[in-house]
Amino acid sequence: MTTWTRTELAGIGEAEELEIASVGEDGALSDWRTIWVVRDGDDVYVRSVYGPGSRWYRGTRARHQGRIRAGGVEKDVTVVDADPRLNDRVDAAYYAKYEAYPASLETILTEPARSTTMRLDPRE
Question: Which InterPro entries did the record assign (predicted)?
Fold first, then answer.
């Protein structure tokens, strides 16, 4: 399995936002969507603030592939459903990073948003 480099983790972790595009059936990328991103150790997580109905979320879930760019990093990723037991840790990471945005933070900590927690793994 490919892992993030320290430089990539630092860039993504320090980025205020991440852009993600899902891979379509024809291999083409969708439009870029701007979302929040957090790190937990050597892992990178994202959520859909609007829950499972969000278009970008459905697109990445359909093929479990996408492309991201954040903090000077642009990379193809595999999108993996996160273990729900990690949600409290991911919540803490969101709170620590985005506490200056209480209204949006409250939304990303809801159960519908938590149900969309995904880990992004780099692909070669």
Answer: UCP028498 (IPR016888)
